[in-house]
Amino acid sequence: MSSSDDEKVRALLARAGDQAGPPLGFTPTTIARRGRRIRMLRWGSGVAGVVVVFAGVTVSLLLVSGGRPVEPASPPPPATTIATTTVDDTTPTVTTTDHGPTTTESGTTTGTTITSHGVPTQH
To answer: According to DSSP H, which parts of 66-106 are helical?
Structure first.
């Protein structure tokens, strides 16, 4: 560079140093506003992430189940039981008539008679 170029550069820098630069733009109001905006963006991103995960899980469960409703389980078949009855000579037989239940004795031992009021009596 020549000396005339050096002088021009020095003169330009001298003039620029005397002038005030552009404002920086860092004021408490703008800092608070940008902080709120960043917090809202982060919150919105978090909510969107939860919605995406929930939708993904729901869709995957629907695909796994094939879109068909689950059929309820059927009850087990009834157990096969063999009912045996034994007739005893001394057991009274109860017969119901229009006048109320009556008891007939089959054996020669003691028995129970049920009166028309439903009260058993020994004899």
So the answer is: none
Is the pTM higher than 0.85?
no
Q: What is the pLDDT of residues 93-116, one digit of tens each?
A: 655 555 555 555 554 445 555 555
Which amino acid, one-letter code, is at 43?
W
Q: Could you give the CA distance from residue 20 to residue 43 in angstroms, rounded to a whole number?
A: 40
Cβ burial 29-68 (10 Å sphere, 16+ → b, else e): eeeeeeeeeeeeeeeeeeeeeeeeeeeeeeeeeeeeeeee
Max Cα–Cα distance, the chain, nearest Å: 151
Closest among 40, 44, 24, 43 to 32, alpha carbons compared: 40
Q: How far apart are CA 8 and CA 1, in angstroms?
A: 11
The letter for the amino acid at 6 is D
Nearest to 93 by CA among 108, 105, 110, 85: 105
